[in-house]
Write a structure and sequence with these properties.
This protein is 37% helix and 21% strand. The chain has 12 helices and 12 strands. Strand 1, helix 2 and strand 2 form a beta-alpha-beta unit. Helix 1 packs parallel to helix 7, helix 3 runs parallel beside helix 5 and helix 8 packs across helix 12. The chain is globular, with a radius of gyration of 19 Å.
């Protein structure tokens, strides 16, 4: 089974014939971006600039200024930090039609550790004005996101987290719209808002909590910016607790985005943000989820403990 990166490359290749203005550009990550096939079929639409993310964004922005719809790829830890100034200026200030693609976000690089983990990318990119952020829940949603972004006019950050062979959340076709969250499960006690790989883990946690008599709604918030204010406001009504789950730092991330909605709407309700607050030790992907409390068992335990304190 293809992971999100491989699926991204396949999707971009499949949609390229429909978009004459499409370009893919990478910082020496042809294979890691899943773009091997794309580079061979569409060599005129493809560039690799070497390990130089600042240069990557500069060239991508130049192409965008000439009317190209550019997808620029590198590891999330590099493309959001090493060239943050370039992304801020070219995407946030100049509003170029540039899709920044963060590969192997979260713990996707496994044992390579904190120099390569993409844990602060949501926090950083949320602060860039006008930049849309999309974090697909599974490979099916990667295809949906690439299709939507290929027709989307404006700067965006596509966050690809997880590992090869991630579980499929969406097993049948569904409507995907940038900026609109998806209710995957209805419940009355707890509202869980999750993104990326944490959508599957949250659904599994909801099953565990159901066995304890706790009823959970689960939202796939694939678009973190703009977050779906209306859906949060609707689904929080009558709940005892709001929980956000993300594979990254909570400060400035999805949890902060949801908290901002609650504050803006004057909604007073207990809230639990599940994510990271510090750099962890390195390890395999499943080990990292367990050690940081981001697997289904620990998510369920955290929610149960919070409910017991209310």
């Amino acid at each position: 089974m293809l992971g999100k990166r491989g699926t991204f490359g396949v999707a971009l290749t499949d949609f390229a014939p429909q978009h004459d203005d499409m370009m893919a550009i990478t910082a020496d990550f042809t294979k890691s971006s899943g773009l091997d096939r794309f580079s061979k079929i569409f060599p005129e639409k493809y560039l690799t600039v070497g390990i130089a993310e600042q240069n990557l964004i500069g060239i991508a922005s130049g192409l965008a200024s000439e009317g190209f719809n550019v997808f620029a790829t590198s590891f999330a830890s590099f493309i959001t930090t090493r060239c943050y100034e370039q992304v801020k200026i070219h995407c946030g200030y100049m509003h170029h039609n540039l899709k920044v693609v963060g590969l192997a976000s979260g713990f996707g690089v496994e044992q390579q550790g904190n120099t390569h983990y993409g844990l602060d990318d949501i926090c950083l990119m949320r602060n860039i004005p006008g930049l849309t952020i999309v974090s697909p829940a599974d490979s099916t949603e990667v295809v949906k996101a690439v299709e939507a972004l290929a027709s989307f006019d404006g700067p965006a950050y596509l966050r690809l987290c997880g590992e090869s062979g991630d579980p499929i959340v969406n097993k049948s076709d569904y409507s995907f719209q940038i900026g609109k969250g998806i209710v995957l499960q209805e419940g009355s006690d707890v509202l869980i808002v999750a993104t990326g790989t944490m959508v599957y883990q949250s659904l599994q946690a909801a099953k565990l909590l159901s066995g304890q008599g706790v009823s959970c709604s689960v939202i796939n918030m694939h678009t973190i910016k703009p977050v779906d204010d209306a859906l949060i406001k609707e689904k929080v009504t009558g709940c005892k607790l709001v929980v956000t789950v993300e594979e990254g730092f909570v400060n400035g991330g999805l949890g902060t985005a949801v908290a901002e909605v609650l504050i803006k709407e004057n909604i007073v309700i207990p809230m639990q943000m599940i994510g990271l607050s510090d750099f962890p030790h390195a390890g395999s992907y499943k080990y990292m989820l367990s050690e940081t409390g981001l697997d289904s068992v620990h998510i369920a335990e955290t929610i149960s403990q919070k409910l017991n304190c209310l």
